[in-house]
Write a structure and sequence with these properties.
Blueprint (H helix, E strand, L loop, with lengths): L1 H29 L5 H8 L9 E5 L2 E3 L1 E3 L5 E3 L9 E4 L13 E4 L2 E2 L5 H7 L5 E6 L4 E5 L1 E22 L4 E13 L1 H7 L8 E4 L2 H6 L8 E2 L2 E4 L9 H4 L3 E7 L2 E15 L11 E9 L17 E8 L1 H10 L10 E2 L5 E14 L4 E18 L2 H20 L8 H18 L15 H23 L7 H28 L1
Parallel strand pairs: 10-18
Antiparallel strand pairs: 1-10, 2-5, 3-4, 6-7, 6-8, 8-9, 10-11, 11-16, 12-15, 13-17, 14-16, 15-16, 17-21, 19-21, 20-21
Helix pairs in contact: 8-9, 8-10, 9-10, 10-11
C-alpha cells in the first residue's frame, strides 16, 4: 500500500509541475518578446530614449589612441599636448583631429595624465583654452545630451576577395556595438528584474520604441550569412541581433553584426602595379550633432553622439596581421597597416519630416587597412617580357642598314608581340580615365619599339648614297635611345 501511495503522489507531483511549467510558458508568451524585462521597459514611459548622459560643459572631447598593449589613451602630439576629437560649440577654432590644446584655465596639459585631462572636460562656467597657435579662446559651458556608442568588438575572420575592378571588399567578420543605458538602469531600479541577465530585443519592441543603437550602420555595406555558421542560422545572421544585458547593475544595449560583408571601396591605380590601397570599413552613428537641438524634445539643448572603439577592436585587428590568419595572396598588409580613426562628416541633408535642408555634422569611425600589392607577378610575367621584347626590337639597330627587310620583319614581329602582352593585365584593373605607371611603361615601350621600324623605312632611300651618314645616325640612336628609355622608365616608377 505504501508503494502504491508513493507512486500516486509522485504522479501527482509530475502533473503539478507540468501544469506549472505550462502556465509559466503561457505567461511568458504574453510578454513582449516573450521576456518580462523588455515588456516592463516598453511600458515605462519616463525613460530617456535617445541619449545616455546629460552634460553641461564646453563640449570639448579629446581624440583617442592605442598604446599597443591593452589600453586606449588620449592622443597627444610630440610635445605631449592632447589633440581635439570634436568640439560641439566651436568648430571654427577647434578643428577635429587637428587642433592641439596646450592649456585649460592656465593648466599645462602636457603634465597631466589622462584621468586628469578627462576631468577638465567636465568643467562648467567660463573655460579658457590655449591652443597650439598661442590663441586663447573662452567658451561658456552649455547643456547638451551625450551618447557615446562603443564598438566593443570587431574581428576580421577572413578576407575572401578584393575585387579591384568592381571596387568591392568581401570579408567575413564579427562585430558588436554596445551602449551603456543609465536611463534603463533607473527604470529597473527597485524592481525584481535588475539581476544579472540578458534578453533579445525583438522586432516588435524595436518598432514600438526607439533604441539608439538602431541608427548605427556600416556604410556601403551588404551582407549575407557566413556559411560556416550553417544554413539553419541564415535568417538570424542575415539581420542584426539586438539584446539588452544587465551586469552588476549596469544596463547595456548590444547590437551584433556578423557574416560575410561586401564593402564598396575606392581605389587609386596611378602607381599600379607598385600601388598601395586603403580598404575602409566605415561605421556611422546615423545621428547628427547639433549645438542647440536634440532628438528628445524641442528645448534649446544641444546633442552630441560619438562612436568609440574599445580595446578588443585593436587586439583583434592586430591578431589578423598574423600570417596564419591573414592569408591574402595578391596583397600584403604591413606591420602597422591597420588603423581605427575617428572622423567628422559634414554636409547638407534634407529632412523629409520637417521638409527642410539643414547642415549636419556626424561622427564616423573608419577602420583603415593599408594593403600593398605583391608586384612580383607583374614584374616577372609582364614587365620583364615586355622589356625583353623591346630588346629584340632594338637589336635590329645592330643589323646592317642595307638588310632593311630583315630589320623590318624583326621589328614588326616584336611590336605585335608587345601589343598582345598589353591585354595580359587588363582584367586586373578597371578601365580608367587616367594612365597607371604600367600603362606609361607599355606606351613608352610601344614608342621605342616603333622607332627601329621608322628608322629602317627612312634609311631605305639613303642607303645607296649616304651609307656613312646612315651608320653614324644608327649608332647614335641605338646607344642614346636605350639610355633615354631607361631614364624615362626610372622616372615613371621611382617618382
Amino acid at each position: 500500500m505504501k508503494i502504491k501511495k508513493l507512486i500516486k503522489y509522485t504522479l501527482l507531483l509530475i502533473v503539478f509541475f507540468k501544469a506549472l511549467t505550462s502556465f509559466s510558458l503561457a505567461l511568458a508568451n504574453n510578454f513582449l518578446c516573450g521576456n518580462e524585462i523588455i515588456d516592463y521597459l516598453i511600458k515605462k514611459d519616463d525613460r530617456n530614449i535617445e541619449y545616455n548622459e546629460s552634460r553641461n560643459d564646453a563640449g570639448i572631447h579629446f581624440d583617442y589612441d592605442w598604446n599597443n598593449k591593452d589600453k586606449i589613451i588620449i592622443k597627444r602630439n610630440e610635445n605631449n599636448f592632447p589633440i581635439i576629437r570634436y568640439s560641439l560649440f566651436d568648430n571654427k577654432n577647434f578643428k577635429a583631429n587637428k587642433t592641439v590644446i596646450r592649456k585649460i584655465n592656465d593648466k599645462n596639459l602636457s603634465k597631466l595624465n589622462d584621468e586628469e585631462l578627462k576631468k577638465l572636460t567636465y568643467l562648467s562656467g567660463k573655460i579658457s583654452f590655449e591652443i597650439d597657435n598661442g590663441k586663447v579662446i573662452s567658451i561658456s559651458s552649455k547643456p547638451y545630451k551625450f551618447n557615446d556608442y562603443k564598438l566593443s568588438n570587431f574581428k576580421i575572420l577572413s578576407i575572401q576577395n578584393i575585387d579591384t575592378t568592381k571596387g568591392i571588399l568581401e570579408m567575413s567578420f564579427d562585430s558588436r556595438f554596445t551602449n551603456i543605458r543609465n536611463d534603463l538602469t533607473k527604470s529597473l531600479k527597485g524592481s525584481d528584474l535588475s539581476s544579472n541577465r540578458s534578453a533579445d530585443i525583438c522586432r516588435e519592441a524595436r518598432f514600438l520604441d526607439d533604441w539608439p543603437l538602431q541608427t548605427v550602420e556600416f556604410e556601403e555595406f551588404m551582407y549575407d550569412a557566413d556559411v560556416r555558421e550553417g544554413l539553419k542560422n541564415k535568417e538570424i545572421l542575415a539581420n542584426p541581433v539586438f539584446q539588452i544585458s544587465i551586469d552588476n547593475n549596469l544596463v547595456r544595449t548590444i547590437r551584433t553584426e556578423k557574416g560575410v560583408g561586401f564593402f564598396r571601396q575606392s581605389f587609386d591605380f596611378r602607381s599600379f602595379p607598385f600601388d598601395k590601397q586603403k580598404l575602409i570599413i566605415r561605421i556611422k552613428t546615423g545621428v547628427g550633432n547639433y549645438p542647440y537641438s536634440n532628438l528628445e524634445d524641442s528645448s534649446n539643448v544641444g546633442s552630441l553622439s560619438l562612436i568609440s572603439p574599445e580595446p578588443g577592436v585593436f587586439i583583434n585587428l592586430k591578431e589578423f596581421l598574423k600570417p596564419e590568419i591573414n592569408k591574402l595572396e595578391a596583397w600584403k598588409i604591413p606591420k602597422d597597416g591597420i588603423e581605427v580613426k575617428s572622423k567628422i562628416l559634414s554636409g547638407n541633408r534634407y529632412d523629409i519630416f520637417t521638409q527642410k535642408t539643414e547642415f549636419v555634422k556626424e561622427n564616423i569611425l573608419d577602420i583603415e587597412i593599408t594593403i600593398e600589392r605583391n608586384y612580383q607577378h607583374y614584374l616577372f610575367k609582364i614587365m620583364l617580357p615586355v622589356f625583353l621584347i623591346l630588346c629584340v626590337a632594338w637589336y635590329v639597330l645592330w643589323i646592317p642598314a642595307k638588310k632593311y627587310e630583315t630589320r623590318l620583319n624583326t621589328s614588326i614581329i616584336a611590336l605585335l608581340a608587345l601589343i598582345a602582352y598589353n591585354f595580359v593585365f587588363q582584367d586586373d584593373i578597371p578601365k580608367l580615365e587616367y594612365l597607371s605607371d604600367i600603362d606609361w611603361f607599355i606606351l613608352l615601350s610601344y614608342i621605342f619599339c616603333c622607332i627601329p621600324v621608322f628608322i629602317s623605312i627612312a634609311f631605305i632611300t639613303f642607303i645607296s648614297k649616304n651609307q656613312k651618314t646612315v651608320r653614324k645616325i644608327n649608332k647614335f640612336i641605338r646607344i642614346w635611345g636605350a639610355i633615354i628609355y631607361l631614364l624615362i622608365t626610372a622616372q615613371i616608377f621611382f617618382t
